[in-house]
Amino acid sequence: VQLQASGGGSVQPGGSLRLSCAASGSISGRNYMGWYRQAPGKQRELVATMSSGGSTNYADSVKGRFTISRDNAKNTVYLQMNSLNVEDTAVYFCSYIAPGRAGHWGQGTQVTVSS
Asked: Which end of the chain, N or C, is less surrounded by CB atoms within 10 Å?
């Protein structure tokens, strides 16, 4: 499985960005796609995931500000990020995992929030 992420960039506090990640290759009908992030000097952490059935999971720090969605026909997951703050600055990684199979990571996309 290959993951191609896009949509990162720089924005001022309070701004919005939308990330996209398209999966290709041997895609399982049942899978979880989502986003993790890693800030400098910190461990990679969960941002949000969504199952192919529509179940979602969010980090507490992004609840109410970020929304994950997906288009199963396109094997694509999106992350709408609103009310961004400087603590959201990180490299965001797309993830894919299917039951019983190894997980996959995308190449990472930088999100920078600064004034």
From this structure: C
